[in-house]
Amino acid sequence: MTSYKLLLLPGDGIGPEVMAEVEKVIGALDALGLARFEIERDLVGGSAIDAHGKPLTDEALARADAADAILLGAVGGPKWADVAYEIRPEAGLLRLRKDLGLFANLRPAICYPALADGSALKRELVEGLDIMIVRELTGGVYFGEPKEITTLPDGSKRAVDTQVYTTAEIERIAHVAFDLARKRSGRVASAEKHNVMKSGVLWKEVVTKVHADYSDVTLEHVLADNCAMQLVRRPKQYDVLVTDNLFGDVLSDVAAMLTGSLGMLPSASLGAVDAKGSRKALYEPVHGSAPDIAGKGYANPIAMIGSLAMCLRYSFGLGEAADLLDSAVTRTLASGARTRDIAAEGTTPISTSEMGDAIIREL
Amino acid sequence: MTSYKLLLLPGDGIGPEVMAEVEKVIGALDALGLARFEIERDLVGGSAIDAHGKPLTDEALARADAADAILLGAVGGPKWADVAYEIRPEAGLLRLRKDLGLFANLRPAICYPALADGSALKRELVEGLDIMIVRELTGGVYFGEPKEITTLPDGSKRAVDTQVYTTAEIERIAHVAFDLARKRSGRVASAEKHNVMKSGVLWKEVVTKVHADYSDVTLEHVLADNCAMQLVRRPKQYDVLVTDNLFGDVLSDVAAMLTGSLGMLPSASLGAVDAKGSRKALYEPVHGSAPDIAGKGYANPIAMIGSLAMCLRYSFGLGEAADLLDSAVTRTLASGARTRDIAAEGTTPISTSEMGDAIIREL
Ligand SMILES: CC(C)[C@H](C(=O)O)[C@@H](O)C(=O)O
Ligand SMILES: CC(C)[C@H](C(=O)O)[C@@H](O)C(=O)O
C-alpha cells in the first residue's frame, strides 16, 4: 500500500485539540488497512512564535513543500496581539499559502439537516443549503505591494495596502470554479465590486471570457455587497460562488455561519496541477482558533476530521476511505452525539475527544 | 420661517418613484406650516449620463455644494453596464461624496417589531435590533491611487486598487462613532483586518487612541470576517459599529438585510462641522436602485421618506417635524399598510404612491 507523506500543523487555540482527534482517526484508518501515512508534525502560528520566534520556520516550510498534503488546525489568538506585524501568527499561514502557490481555496457551506435548527436563519431558508465558495487565495490585497505604514512630516501616519490582480490569476481561479460547477448544478456566481474597483472590472471581464469555454455552465455577476445581502436573504440561490481573496474571506464566513454548522466545515487550499498530475494541498477547518474555548474540550473536531476526509479524496484518490469516514461522521451525528457548538439547548454535549472516539467507533 | 435649500437628486431605477413621494411629503409639511424649503432638482447617475453624457455635471455639483442638504434616490443599473468606468453612474455618487467631503456615513439597521417576521433570521435574534453602522466614506480602496488597469507586454492585464488611510481620516470617523455611542448604549465595535492589512493595523491603533477620550464608552475590536459572522449569529451584540469604506459597504448591507426592513432604512452622509456650526449632508435610502422593480409601483418609499426625516433632524434642527413624520410612518405601518417588500404572504400590498398618501394622511 502506498504510504502518503502527511504534514500535521496543529497551530494555535483549539487547533491542537482537534488535530489530536485526527491523529486518532489516522491511527484507526491505518489499523483497518484503509490508508497508510508517514506522519510529520511541525509548528505554525503562535506556537511557532513561542518556540522559534517566528510563525513559520524555513524547515517547516521545506517540510510542507515536501509533503504530499498538509493538515492545518488554526492559527492566531490574543496571546500574540503585540507581536510585530511581520512575525504575527497569521504570517505563517499566509506564507504557506503564497510560497506553496495554494491559489484555490474551496470552502463548502453545507447545512446538515440534523443541524438546520442551529442556524440563525429560518429552517426553510437553509435546509439543503450546499454552496461551494471558491476563494482566490494568493493574490489581491493580501499580498499586493506596497503594503506599508509611513510616518508623515507632522508625525501622523499613512497606511497603504494594494490590491493587485492579473489576467492569469483570475483565469486560473475561474477555471476551478467552472470545472467544479460542471460536476455540481452547473451554476457559477462571481462576486466583485466592478462599480468601484478596477480589479473588479478586470475580474468581471476575465471571468466572462473564461466562461466562453463552459457553455454548459451559467454565469451570474453579482456585486459583493449585494452578494452578502443575498446570502442572508435567500442563500439557496447560490451553488458555486467565486470571488477574490478579501471578499472571499468575508463572504465565506457569512456562508459558513448560515449553516449553523461552523464547527463541521472543512476546506481545501489547492495549488496548480503539475506535470505529474499532482498538486500541493492544504486542508483546514473553516473555523478559526477560537482561543476563548481552547483547552476546555468544547471544540468540535468534525471540521478537522472532515478536512482529513477531503484530503483522502482530493490529494490521494482514496475515495472509498473518505466515504467511510464521512459516513462514520453522519452516523455519529444521527446517533445524537453533539459537541457544545451544535447541541440543542437543555441537552448534554460531549467533549472533543468523546466525539473523536464516537466517530472512530462508527468506522 | 427659515427656508432651507434642499437639492433633490432622484437618480435611477426606483429613485425617481420614491423621490416623488418625498416631494408630496415636502408639500404637506409646507402646507401644515411645519417646514419650508427652496427645492432644486438635478440629475445624477444614469439619468445624468442619458441627459449630459456624464453622471454628474459641474453645475449639479455646484448646486449640491450650495444646498443646505441633499436628498438622493439611488444610482446605477444594467442599462449603463457598458459605459466607460470613469463616467459610470456610480462615479457621480462617488464624486459627490468625495468633493463634498461626506466622510461619515451613518447607516442604522433597525428591526421594526411589526416587520420582524420578514427577516431571514429567527425573530428572537432580530427583535429589537438597533445597530448604527458608521462607515468611513471618502477614503480607503474607493479613492486611493494608483487605481488602474495596465496592459502587460504579453497582452494580458494587471489591475490595481489602493487602500489608503491616514491617522486624520481614522481619527475623525472614530470621533463620530464614539460621540454617537455616548448618546446610545455606550458601546463601539471597530472592524478591520489588522491581521492582514496595514491599514487595519493603523485603523486599530488610531481608534484605540481616540478611545482614550471616551472613558464612558466601551470599545471592542473585531476582525471584519468575524464581524460578518457575528452579525448573522447574534446581531444584537452590536450597538455602534465603525469600519472602513469597503468593509462598511459589505457589513452595512448584511446588517440592513437582517432587519427584514431594507426598504425602510434611511442613511446620512455627513461632512465636517464648519466654523458656522453647519455641515454638508446627503441623505439617501440604504437600498439601491432596484432596476428590476423600477416603474412598477412596487418600491417602498419609507426609506426615502425616512431620509427626509433624518435631514429635518440632523441638518435643520427640525426635530419636531421629524418626530411628526416618523410617527406618521409608524402609525401607517400599524394600520397595516404594506408595500410588496414587507407584505406578508397572501396579503395584498399597496403601491409606492398609496404608501406615500397613507403617510401624508397620518401627518
Ligand atoms: C487567519 C487569517 C489570515 C485568514 C484570512 O484572512 O485569510 C482567515 O480569516 C481565513 O479566512 O482563513
Ligand atoms: C453604488 C455604490 C458605489 C455604493 C458603494 O459601493 O458605496 C453603494 O453600494 C453604497 O453602499 O452606497
TrEMBL record, chains A, B:
Site positions for Important for catalysis: 142, 193
Binding site for substrate: 97, 107, 135, 225
Enzyme Commission number: 1.1.1.85
CC cofactor note: Binds 1 Mg(2+) or Mn(2+) ion per subunit.
PROSITE patterns reported for this sequence: IDH_IMDH
Start and end residues of each Isopropylmalate dehydrogenase-like domain: 5-359
Pathway noted in the entry: Amino-acid biosynthesis; L-leucine biosynthesis; L-leucine from 3-methyl-2-oxobutanoate: step 3/4
Keywords recorded for this protein, A-Z: Amino-acid biosynthesis, Branched-chain amino acid biosynthesis, Cytoplasm, Leucine biosynthesis, Magnesium, Manganese, Metal-binding, NAD, Oxidoreductase
Residues that coordinate or bind Mg(2+): 225, 249, 253
Pfam families cross-referenced by the UniProt entry: Iso_dh
UniProt cross-references to InterPro entries, sorted A to Z: IsoCit/isopropylmalate_DH_CS, IsoPropMal-DH-like_dom, Isopropylmalate_DH
SMART domains: Iso_dh (SM01329)
GO molecular function: 3-isopropylmalate dehydrogenase activity
Signal sequence coordinates: none
Catalysis performed (reactions): (2R,3S)-3-isopropylmalate + NAD(+) = 4-methyl-2-oxopentanoate + CO2 + NADH
Protein localization: Cytoplasm
Cofactor: Mg(2+); Mn(2+)
Chain residues that bind NAD(+): 77-90, 288-300
Sequence similarity: Belongs to the isocitrate and isopropylmalate dehydrogenases family. LeuB type 1 subfamily.
Subunit and interaction comment: Homodimer.
Known function: Catalyzes the oxidation of 3-carboxy-2-hydroxy-4-methylpentanoate (3-isopropylmalate) to 3-carboxy-4-methyl-2-oxopentanoate. The product decarboxylates to 4-methyl-2 oxopentanoate.
Name of protein: 3-isopropylmalate dehydrogenase
Species: Methylobacterium goesingense
